[in-house]
Write a structure and sequence with these properties.
The complex is a heterodimer of chains A (429) and B (281).
Chain A lengths: L2 E14 L1 H7 L3 H9 L1 H9 L10 E14 L3 E5 L6 H8 L7 E7 L2 E3 L13 H11 L4 H15 L14 H13 L5 E5 L7 H16 L3 E5 L3 H7 L2 E6 L2 E7 H10 L7 E3 L12 E9 L8 E3 L4 E9 L3 E2 L1 E9 L4 E6 L4 H6 L2 E2 L2 E9 L7 E11 L3 E15 L29
Parallel strand pairs in A: 3-7, 3-8, 5-6, 6-7, 12-20
Antiparallel strand pairs in A: 1-2, 1-4, 8-9, 10-11, 11-13, 13-18, 14-17, 15-16, 15-19, 19-20
Helix pairs in contact in A: 5-6, 5-7, 6-7
Chain B lengths: L10 E4 L10 H6 L1 H15 L8 H21 L9 H28 L1 H6 L6 H27 L8 H29 L2 H15 L12 H7 L3 H14 L7 H31 L1
The chains are: A alpha/beta (429), B mainly alpha (281).
């Protein structure tokens, strides 16, 4: 068997801290000095002698990652957010260059992320197929030969000479996907986390991925969905803080990932080194998702209430502290925000919280969430005074909808909420 | 899948690029069709959903020429070395229009296509290149207008324009591309470029003999003046088309030198910044 991908000691360093220095100034004088010296800084940066570089922090998004992948294999990549999964895919698809190390890739790398890249609303479907094909690296003769197939697959035959700005979003996506799906790269990378589109469309992506794998092509699959990893891959690697900590058959890798406590499975525990010094006197300890019986779970039933517990310590008394939750979809749309002192009585009672060890516990009633995966963010602040701590992506949980309203039809419902509404049917005559 | 489309996969090596070897012109050749498609798209889309459509490519230079003719030809009565002012101005507006389009579209090309830059690989050089080449279509239309004007005013072109004009057109493209390479790469990191562009364009117009003749500049300043590569381009166009000025002289070679310098340095600056485009854009 030939090697499709050979990754050797890959590392990628990113600059961070530029933003921090930007927000540092809080005095008008600083702002003025900063503005006045901006042209000088620009000139310095241009000749590559930036003085900012001194106080800039560098972080390794990926470090010393090495692996070989044989042609025709499907490799899963798991790891929590920020583990370096997307960076790895970006390097393999040559969007960004590695800081260290080498990669050799045999053949064309395609990804289903690129769907619709370079589509221009003013161009017709036909013109966009050629344009998009060229962007994805297809030759003109190749597009010509696949043109009819692409149009058939996209189901927009009638509108092929209409500007795509007149398309419905579904038609647009289908056409874009059809081009990407016909690229037929030797190596396909799929980042489910970043995949756009509705559930239906994501299913189509996964289906296409399965087909590609069966045709003996090489696939790299990034997902937070462990069952998808188990179903679609034979082997997986686990990334943690930019390093590859395991490569094993998928079952073994998934078990390791789930048990090593980095899966964000229903529970997030903050280690002392994860907490920035600026959050004092507030120290987050843990965030847990619990089902009705009090067990910490990764998956909750939409028909039962869910409890979210946030445990933290205060090393000094804080006035006006409020601790809250943000719940959002995986695509980053907020569903709701709630604080522990929203209630007027609690707001009065907890005007000042003394030093100590606390739990803020919220019960989310049944029949709120639709099927899917949701993230929970936490925030501790004194309104209008200071924000002590914030983690927008503390943990994620799945919602299972068996028994929820409307499940007798077995069709996916759009929208992140699935309330049990009080319907009445009246017969007028 | 047809047999036609199958090809033997070649191996790509990805590693941190160093030094001058990073120029990677081979990839540019492989992706040559993309340049064509980008130019085609820019041209196709430019006048979409406008009432006058392609007529804008005629109206814009003609209106500028009329305004210049009134202000500088009729009111200020600038010397034109015996050439009717409209023809005199239009011969300069031709390369100037190409340059301005390249400057504006080219400098914004990377930022404008940031979704392409952050999602897929292709030689990034294609973006500023396509912006510059797209300007050639407007140039061709304006050229036809110039021919009409020359017939109307009965200006006989110099006989050697057959080979001198393409050379000066090449010089215009090299200059425009060089500046576009520098500015587009800087724009990725410092959006100050967007703010500076309108001012830069205006300033550059005054520093270039478009509305006036280069002969009004005193000899003392000629050398400094020729540091502006567009001065060489515009003088060259007038010389090739209308036979004004001295033709290739020391000042022209200074302009050519500066052009090539901007182009080569722009190419290397662009390539050295290219590896971080996707991260900083």
């Amino acid at each position: 068997m030939t090697t499709a991908i050979s990754v050797h000691n890959i590392g990628k360093q990113y600059k961070i801290g530029a933003a921090e220095t930007k927000f540092r100034y809080n005095m008008l004088r600083d702002v003025i000095v900063d503005t006045v010296s901006a042209p000088i800084r620009l000139a310095k940066a241009m000749v590559g002698r930036s003085d900012r570089r001194m106080n800039q922090n560098y972080v390794w998004a990926l470090k010393d990652v090495s692996f070989d992948l044989e042609e025709g294999k499907v490799l899963g990549i798991v790891g929590r957010n920020g583990a370096g999964k997307s960076t790895l895919l970006k390097i393999l698809s040559r969007v960004t260059e590695p800081t260290t190390g080498t990669v050799s890739v045999r053949g064309r790398v395609g990804s289903l992320l690129e769907v619709g890249t370079g589509f221009h609303p003013e161009l017709t479907g036909r013109e966009n197929i050629y344009m998009n094909g060229a962007i994805l690296g297809m030759r003109r003769a190749e597009i010509d030969s696949k043109f009819d197939e692409i149009v058939d697959f996209s189901e927009v035959t009638q509108y092929i000479d209409t500007p795509v700005k007149r398309y419905s979003s579904g038609m647009y996506l289908r056409l874009a996907f059809a081009v990407a799906a016909h690229l037929e790269p030797e190596i396909l990378v799929v980042d489910e986390v970043l995949a756009v589109g509705d559930a239906e469309f994501q299913k189509k992506c996964l289906g296409k991925m399965g087909d590609v794998a069966q045709q003996g092509r090489t696939v790299l699959f990034v997902s937070h969905n462990m069952s998808a990893i188990l179903r679609l891959t034979q082997e997986a690697i686990v990334l943690n803080k930019g390093q590859m900590i395991m490569r094993a058959p998928s079952q073994q890798a998934v078990d390791f990932y789930l048990s090593s406590g980095q899966s964000q499975a229903g529970e997030k525990i903050w280690d002392a080194e994860d907490v920035p010094a600026s959050s004092a006197p507030f120290t987050p300890l843990s965030l847990k998702v619990k089902e009705k019986g009090g067990k910490v779970v990764d998956t909750v039933r939409s028909t039962e209430p869910v409890t979210i517990e946030f445990e933290y310590k205060l090393s000094a008394g804080v006035t006006g502290l409020r601790v809250g939750l943000y719940v959002s979809t995986m695509r980053g749309e907020y569903i709701f925000t709630s604080f522990d002192t929203d209630d007027a009585a609690l707001f009065e009672n907890y005007d000042t919280r003394s030093a100590g060890h606390y739990i803020s516990r919220a019960e989310i009633p049944a029949d709120i969430f639709n099927e899917g995966r949701y993230t929970v963010g936490v925030n501790a602040s004194s309104f209008g005074v200071r924000r002590y701590f914030m983690d927008e992506n503390a943990l994620a949980f799945n919602v299972d909808i068996s028994g929820a309203p409307g499940t007798q039809w077995g069709e996916p419902r759009v929208g992140p909420v699935r309330p049990r509404l009080n319907w009445k049917i009246e017969k007028l005559y | 899948m047809t047999e036609l489309t199958k090809y033997e996969p070649h191996t790509i090596y990805i590693k941190p690029s160093k030094g001058l070897a990073a120029l990677n012109l081979r990839d540019l050749w492989i992706y040559r069709e993309l340049i064509f498609f980008m130019v085609w798209r820019d041209v196709k889309v430019k006048y979409k959903q406008t009432l006058l459509g392609m007529a804008w490519a005629v109206i814009q230079p003609v209106m500028t020429m009329l305004i210049f003719s009134f202000l500088f030809g009729k009111v200020a009565k600038l010397p034109t070395e015996g050439i009717p002012y409209p023809v005199f101005a239009f011969a300069a507006l031709l390369p100037w229009g190409l340059f301005v389009t390249a400057l504006n579209q080219g400098s914004r090309s990377l930022v404008a296509h940031n979704n392409m830059v952050t999602k897929i690989y292709f030689p990034r050089l294609i973006l500023p290149m396509a912006s510059v080449f797209a300007g050639l279509v407007d140039f061709a239309i304006a050229f036809v207008i110039l021919v009409v004007l020359m017939f109307y005013y009965q200006v006989t072109p110099a006989w050697n324009l057959i080979w001198t004009l393409p050379l000066f057109l090449l010089l215009a493209i090299v200059t425009a591309l060089g500046v576009a390479l520098w500015l587009s790469a800087i724009n990725v990191q410092y959006r100050d470029v967007n703010q500076a562009l309108p001012f830069l364009t205006q300033f550059w117009l005054f520093a270039t003999p478009v509305a006036y003749s280069a002969s009004v500049i005193s000899d003392k300043w000629q050398v400094v003046y020729s540091l502006n590569p567009m001065a060489g381009v515009v003088n060259g166009f007038r010389w090739a088309l209308l036979g004004t000025g001295n033709g290739p002289d020391a000042a022209l070679w200074v302009s050519v030198g500066i052009s090539i310098l901007i182009f080569i340095s722009g190419l290397f600056y662009f390539r050295s910044m290219e590896k971080t485009f996707a991260d900083t854009i």
